[in-house]
Amino acid sequence: MKKLLMLSFWGAILLLSGAPLAAQNTVDVLNNGPQPANTAGCAVNPQCIPAVWSTTSNAGSDISAAISANLVFASNGGALLIDFPAATSGRICLADTRDLTGTTLFGQIAANCQAAGGRALLLIRDSAVTAPSAIPVFVISTANGDFLRSTVGFNASSGISNCPIRINVAKAVPPANPTGEHNCPDGQAAPAYVGPGTAKYTPNESLCLPAGAGQAVEPSMTVDSQGSIYIQSIRGVPGGLDLWRWYKTADGGPNADGTLPFKYEGQPDCGMVVTPFCKASGFAPGGGDGDVAVNAPNPSNANTPNVAVVSLSAAEITGSNSTNRADTFSTPNVATAVVPFDDRMWLDGLNDPSHVYMEYHDFGTTSQIFVQRSADGGQNYTDGVGTVVDAATEPSVGPPTGNIAGQIKVDKSSCSSHGNLYQIFVGPDNPVDNLQNSAAFMNAAYLGVATGVSVTNPTLSFTDHKIFSCGAGSTCPSGLGLGNLFPALAVDNFGYVYATWSDNTDVYYSFSNNHGTRWSPAIKVTQNTSQAGKSNVYTWIAADANGHVAIAWYGADQAGNSNKVPADSTHWNVFVSESVNGHAISPAFTMSQATDHSNHTGQISTGGLLGSSDRSLADFFQIAMDPNHLVNIAYADNHAGPAVTYFTRQKAATAGISTKGKCAGTSHEAGGNGHVNGKHGGQAQFNFNYDDSDQPTGSASFSDSGSGVNFQATQVTAATFDPVAHTVTLTGTGTNNGRPVAFTIVAADSSLAPPGLFSITLTDGYNNSGDLLDGSVSVY
């Protein structure tokens, strides 16, 4: 969803100049006033307050001399000139963006401070901002802002702070380079960091970032078929994107500790005016959202895969591409979307040399999700167009509540489903819930499916299917709905589709083995783990091979709403749950921690544009699998200063990954367990499973103590599936109390024919049949 950091629009473009980049500034409390607790990011004085300069303020130049003065506090966030006290002249303004009640440009707050005679502005906010203005603007965290407001304090009558402060000139962070990164700028936004690693993941490494970038958040990533890794992050409008690449041939192999020597590739969306201006000023046509995708190697270009990027401005989407592994990018096309005023675009490339799909959200009145196709690697998206929300679903997920769109995925398998498009989104379950006009009633997950897609047909036609619902009228178990930024989607190499989402407490998972039209009952991958009952948000998913799935998210060490957990004592880490049988009736997941340190302390906002909680990590991060089946992770981290992008990867591929099997839609699975009535009273217990998606395997057991039956299958010899009746018939051999028997089991799906049915016939004369008393049966 759109971010408040994006609300500095294009009207202030001429305030920028070709100024040099600046590093992080700091704030000291003078006259022996109270001092903050030790704060990371202040190398000279460990009790200073880190302050991030807005690179579009002070006419594009950081301060060249320290500013010392008392503070004055602006009420109501400084939205109006009258919010600044009479004593503002000659002093430093302090404004808290949490006090804003409407949409206010950060540049307007600075203009009000200047008009009242203020020398500089400190904005209290947990993420960087762009504030075009003639006076310098700096951002401090909410925790440090509360310290200045409450601990340093203000005179009740004059509004002047009890102690003066000093805003110090930035000192460039030296370009320490412990992992051998290439092309790093001289000044850094944050000190280089390399951690110790974890049992399964390599040492976490920061990716070098120019000091003037301010931040590198919402990292998107992809890995091409040759193993090259591309990571892109955003600065916020109008700062543009940053991009890093690891290409083994040019950049070197992994270091001894497993870290990678990435190359900093600069800003792929530079070029709205002229490229030198963009590079010098840090101004680019976008940076509000971004994404990156790759195509297959191009045989006409030395088998080099195409790389496509998109960047969001306040009103349009910029697109460009690279044909030399991100060393240079084409001149950006600053108007790729057919509908202006857009939000949250995602990309995925077809596994051919040039076709790329872009999804984006209408941020106007319809809440429609648009899909466009590029035939030239992401420079122009005029080759195809379609809308995802179909007529039957629109009354549930259109205005007033609308929907939140997750990523788009293309089926790149060698199956008949190759080229299918899948688009995930969450919204209300029904029109009545939609009328609640509340994010808490975004209680269902959906998938838009376009099948039989041809790159010669310009029309992309979607049909929507419901993946999961918390129930009509429900705000889900957490009370917060499913709009916890963002639902995510993956397709494996055999055409199986996987989805994940969060209700702010649990991470949910479901799969489809028939191209997104029917979905398995959702499971909670956080259940029965150390993260059960705690806050878990920002899920992402990747898949390859046959059923190899990995889900990642930010997990807290405390329970509660991520927007309201204790700001000073809640610690977050990146967790990953992985499965090698992701489309089995009962998939097994193993959870591990990927971060070797807490990447964030405090709250995490899930409110997007209207979020009033901590947004310093922005709204998501991504993972991707490489050709060696390793999980690669790019995430945002602000444990040591401004939020920047970090990387880690799996040390070794998980055992049991299968690269053979049947395509989705051609395989069958069935399984269940529970009780039926015993033939002579009491209850009989059953359990069975069958899966032919890889190598056909099956098992079954049944016990009816009232009839003296204790059956165990030794071999399932045949399975017959009835797609109309939603039943499975299994036959085979086994033993009953140790004596050989043949068996026939017939079971009916519980969700499609509730409550489900189970029957068994043994050749020794025993038979039993009945509706399920508990448990369930699934037939796919």
Provide structural commentary.
The protein is mainly β and 780 residues long. The chain contains 6 helices and 44 strands. The chain has a 9-stranded antiparallel sheet, with no helix packed on it. Strand 28 and strand 29 form a beta hairpin. It is elongated. The N terminus is likely disordered.
Strand order of the largest sheet: 43-42-41-40-39-38-37-36-44
Described by the principal axes of the CA atoms, the overall outline is: elongated
Q: What value does the Rg take, in angstroms?
A: 28 Å
Class from secondary-structure proportions = mainly beta
Uncertain parts: 1-22
User: Would you report the number of β strands?
Assistant: 44
Report the major sheet: 9 strands, antiparallel
Kindly report how far apart the N and C termini lie: 35 Å
Report the total helices: 6
Strand content: 35-45%
**Range of helix content:** under 10%
Mean pLDDT comes to 91
